[in-house]
Amino acid sequence: MSASMKPRLVMKFGGTSVAGVERIRAVARLVKRQVELGYDVAVVVSAMSGETNKLVAFTREMSPLHDAREYDAIASTGENVTAGLTAVALDAIGVPARSWAGWQVPIKTDGVHGSASIVEIGVEGIVERFGQGVVAVVAGFQGVSPEGRVTTLGRGGSDTSAVALAAALGAERCDIYTDVDGVYTTDPRIVEKAQKLDKVSYEEMLEMASLGAKVLQTRSVEVAMIHKVRTQVLSSFDESAGENLPGTLVCDEDEIMEKRLVTGVAYSRDEAKITLVRVPDRPGVAASIFSPLADAGINVDMIVQNVSDDGKTTDMTFTTGKADFDRALKVLEDNRAAIGFERISTDPNVVKVSVIGVGMRTHAGVAQTMFKTLAEKGINIQVISTSEIKVSVLIAAEYTELAVRALHTAYGLDKA
Amino acid sequence: MSASMKPRLVMKFGGTSVAGVERIRAVARLVKRQVELGYDVAVVVSAMSGETNKLVAFTREMSPLHDAREYDAIASTGENVTAGLTAVALDAIGVPARSWAGWQVPIKTDGVHGSASIVEIGVEGIVERFGQGVVAVVAGFQGVSPEGRVTTLGRGGSDTSAVALAAALGAERCDIYTDVDGVYTTDPRIVEKAQKLDKVSYEEMLEMASLGAKVLQTRSVEVAMIHKVRTQVLSSFDESAGENLPGTLVCDEDEIMEKRLVTGVAYSRDEAKITLVRVPDRPGVAASIFSPLADAGINVDMIVQNVSDDGKTTDMTFTTGKADFDRALKVLEDNRAAIGFERISTDPNVVKVSVIGVGMRTHAGVAQTMFKTLAEKGINIQVISTSEIKVSVLIAAEYTELAVRALHTAYGLDKA
């Protein structure tokens, strides 16, 4: 049988979108509409909201030091349930469907249990079913290791499953259905005048995801960028969705006509600041600090080395994620002799605020606007870091809302 | 690496035995003891009690006419969770273990989704792990079809998983841990003087399981009998269990020294009586009744054809399971013209009481004792059926307890 010549679409539904029989029926109706519009559809589903947490809690209660392979075998089952139920719901409204576990597709991953990376997806079976008019419902978040064990891709991994499947299928688009209707210029819970973006570039979305916007998993945006998978974020709670791109399209920069200087303002509360006071100001001191942290798997984000007062010692300030904070302090204390600092000063009450936009590449003055705006509000900047398309500053957490609102206004992002 | 030379043991734990973290920890301790006694152990687990019912309810709510393949994909996940948790619990007390899904073992079945039969079990992987000192924890109730889809073995199928695995591994014994401490001469909830049997033959256990004793799934006893798997039923709630065969051993008749005339009294409430009144008394009438019922997949159990009064018509009485009752009536009505009965008379308030024992093969008078005992209590026998090692009678349901107690006493089964 020759493969279907229809365009292909991947539709992904998160935990709140499949949280019960009625929600899954709504998902089936959304899928049916796309089938009727002429697509071969692969659906990727998460576990019902709360299910994975329940399974993880069981595993941790049984043993905090559980084998990661068993964790994966347990934590992956919620997606199998939703995949089966979604196939049943589709069949019930006249749309032929079958469910696929990760190992059945197969979604081949490496053997890093708990946060595996997808290596290859064999889509022959799904494509054959497309030829028979069957919708493929694939369990997200999971794959199979080279040893034939079930793996999981890490929390939020179903987004990555969906984008990678879209890449493997050569899909026209990957639609990520969630409980919000798109990507906003900033968090609408903080800024009432936040606007939904019609389009955002892969690079910008990657920075926004990394910098605290939780709408898409960072890894999924990386995969979308690498494989040029046009990815739409939209709401599963609006059943008129699915036509005319009602959500936010994450796409190539070239596809975005109207370019803004700054596309969004993001913030992350998951930051903790560590300062090593009076470390020797000599070559190699940075390595003596950051190598042991890297060896312990601790990501260090922003770094600033203060100007030396006396030419002999300096202060070194950097940030880690809150989850790594205690462990980072222990690693530093363990290496105290080798590093040679006087004392450690810490501050967990900090927030990272960032402005993001590909326009920065060609326009100067974006950072200056940021610094001036924050200064006018009396907000002290503790650390600064920049990349080609973003500027991030670390400030005291109590100023978060004030800073985000002021920057949103300053860059002309407020809704009219 | 050469295979381990240790004797092998399969230990199966049902839903109440794994109903939560603490219960699974108790299971791990029972397994550890057998490992310390020198066995290579394969553990087969059910889903936590209530989990499979919850998954089945979801599926039925989604669509009463669901695809059986999706039912299996959904209903099988509870066992994967328990298998993973059991492996974690074993690891946590120093017993190396890994979990196996049915498809990973693989437990190969036919493609009859919802009630698949095991065709072959590939034990190479498990045996290799035995050689490394690892306990295998296998998800019960499930397998994989020739098409690579997940199958389930039908309710109670984990018993069959365990016995079939024991056969494939050449295990010394299969221990079925449950919430009762063995097989009794009759239901202890009805007869206070019921006695636990030390041993019971495969044939007797098969009749007892078929006739209403719910302690083992019928199919698992068939597999045990065919492959001569010595199978012990015992309680997981008694942590002193596991040594010196504290439960009931289901074994070959030859292994049982002390033979009783009657081993047990069983009853089944899952019966409904149908009488076709005034069917033509001619050759072929039985076929005209029972062929369409068989075609519809309805099992007919006891059958009696009454003596013809007039030489022209007769009454035909038979029983079906309660679940098939309505469907059986519809099939009969649909075939009314071909059969030619006057009317249908029904009675769902009946119970089948049976006495079982291999001793019947060599001793006459067992049936007579039964008839006499029931007559003395004023209980009318509606239908009788016999096999080589059992006599069953159909009586009014209200006499169930009276009949079972009287027979238990009459055959000398009462505990001193």
Tell me which protein chains meet in the greatest interface and how many residues each side has. A-B, 37 and 37 residues
Can you tell me the overall shape of chain A?
globular
Protein structure class of chain A = alpha/beta
Roughly how many Å apart are the termini of chain A? 55 Å
Q: Could you estimate the helical fraction of the residues of chain A in percent?
A: 25-40%
CATH architecture assignment of the largest domain in chain A: 3-Layer(aba) Sandwich
Say which CATH homologous superfamily of the largest domain in chain A is assigned: Acetylglutamate kinase-like
The parts of chain A where pLDDT drops under 50 for at least 5 residues are none
- Largest sheet, spatial ordering of strands of chain A: 3-6-2-1-9-11-12-10
Q: What CATH first level of the largest domain in chain A would be assigned?
A: Alpha Beta
Mean pLDDT of chain A comes to 93
Share of residues in strands of chain A: 25-35%
Rg on CA atoms of chain A, Å: 23 Å
How would you describe this structure to a colleague?
The first copy, chain A, is α/β, with parallel strands linked by helices. The first copy, chain A, has 2 domains: 247 residues, 3-Layer(aba) Sandwich (Carbamate kinase), CATH 3.40.1160.10; 158 residues, VC0802-like. Chain A has 13 helices and 20 strands. In chain A, the strands form 5 sheets. Chain A has an 8-stranded mixed β-sheet, with helices on both faces. The model of chain A has no long low-confidence stretch (mean pLDDT 93). Chains A and B meet through helix 1, helix 2, helix 3 and helix 4 of A and helix 1, helix 2, helix 3 and helix 4 of B.
